[in-house]
Structure formats: C-alpha cells, structure tokens
Amino acid sequence: MATMDAVLINKTGGTEVLEYKTDVPIPTLKGGEVLLKNEYIGVNFIDTYYRKGLYPITNFPYIPGSESAGTVAAVANAGNLYGLKVGDKVVIHHSSTYASYMAIPAARAVRIPERLSTSSAAAVSLQAMTAWSLVHEAHPVKAGEWVLVTAAAGGTGRWVVQMAKDLGATVIATCSTAKLDLVRQLGADHVIDYNKQDYVKLVLDLTSGNGVAAVFDSLGKSTFDTSLQCVARKGSMVSFGNTTGTVEPVDIMRISGKSIKLVRPRISAYIATREELNATAAAVFKFLERDGVKIDIFKVYPLRDAAQAQDDLESG
Question: Which CATH class is domain 3-112?
Fold first, then answer.
C-alpha cells in the first residue's frame, strides 16, 4: 500500500504530542469521495482545541487539522461527486487535514476560483467563512451599528473587522500593543490596547454609555465577563472562541437585565448542507475580490513543523 506523510497524535496534550510520520497509508476511497492531494493546510485554533482535549477525540491515532486546499488526485467510482474531476483545485473544511492526502466527501469540497491562489484559499476559507457567518447570522450587522471585536488581529478577528466595516458598522477593536497599526489598517474605527487600557470604560465612553449592538469575542474565558458589560440593551454577545479557555457556565439571569442575546456559534452548524456551503463560499469569494481586502499569510511551514506552527499560533 502506498504511504504518505502525516502528523498524528496518540494522546492529548501539548505540541509535543504531534508526531510527524512518513509511512502513513494513503486512504482508500468510498462512494462519493475524492482523493485530495494537499498543497496548503490551514492552521487554526480549533486544531489546538482537539490536541488539548477541549473537543473530544473518539479514536487514536488521530490526524489533526480542519481545512486545506489542493488538487483532486482521484475520484471514487460511485456516488455523487458534484462534478468534481481529477485536476480540480478545491478547498475543504474537514477533519484530519495534516496529511499529504485525504479521502474527502465531494459534498464538502468547493472549487477554488481561478482568481484565488491555492495558498490564499487554505489560509482564509475557514476563518473568512466563520466571520461571514458571525456577521450575517450570529448577529446580522446593520449599517450604523457599533460593534466590538476582541482579539481583532487574530485570524477570524481580522475578517470580522473587515466584513463588519463593509456592512457599515462602526468597529471598536481590541488587540495587543504590537498589533495596533495592523488593526487600524484593517479599517477599525477605534483600536484599544487591551494590555494597557480599560476597554469597558472606553467602549462605554465611545458609545455615550449605551454599549455596542454586538460583541464578537474569540478569547473566551478571560474576556467574557468584561465583554458582556459592553453589550447594549437588546444587543448580542457572540462568544465564538476559547483561546484563553472555555467560558464558565452562565447564569441566564445575568443577561436578562438588558435582554441580551447570548450566542455560541460553530461554523459546522451554520454550514451544514451543500446549499449553505455553496452560498457562503460564493459570498466569501466575492468579498475577497473587493478593493482593499487584506489577505495576510504569516508564514508557510513544512508539514514536519506542525508543532512549531501551533506554538507560534498560541503565542500570538
């Protein structure tokens, strides 16, 4: 049986549990699947959640990863392939992407437009589609609204800033001292250094004490309570990440005073059908064509350096 390179884990823990192997069997295809030869693999915080055990893994060894882009190398002999053929460039949101090859459901693969590079597709698709779902479904942002984005220099945060601005919102963004200029370049109207400034006070001052229509918070445990204080009456608290840990159980009465909507979204629940995937991908790809939209790739790592990539991600 032919083999491939892959990164796998046999237990949860730190990045030391990530093992680079060169003798992993290439998967065989079932009906409705295509064999994807990965060219670029996205690195996302959700990968670290599985590695640490925050999200459960049912079987070991486990290949981590949640998105990749590459070329269709083979197709199954049966099942709906949604028109995919050998040689097509596609992007996929799927588990176990830290590998040279993947057997993936054709229903979850999206053709990459010619105008978008394979590397850009792998770098932005999961984060950009997540951000799109946040500002269009978790809290549909309206022109004239004030919104707050925490960790705005992060992968998804950058897209939330740009998309919320495109929808006409006034964006307040928090980030570390080193990334203030970057976030301003993304279009944020007000940038707060969360290492040095009291962002609750500043948000309330900027909004004349009213608070924001929505907070998009990816940090989780460390910022949930403070972000909640920034939400306006009848506003939305959208907590979509666990970078600093899982949010503690919430007493529902805490959000009753201002009739706040508390949302804990996950992209797999928003993009569960082929129709939802096609619609979201088309909207995001169209957005990426706009003038001024910034696609940043921090660094490209060889697969063997997956542990270093996750270390760098978690260190900011």
Answer: alpha beta
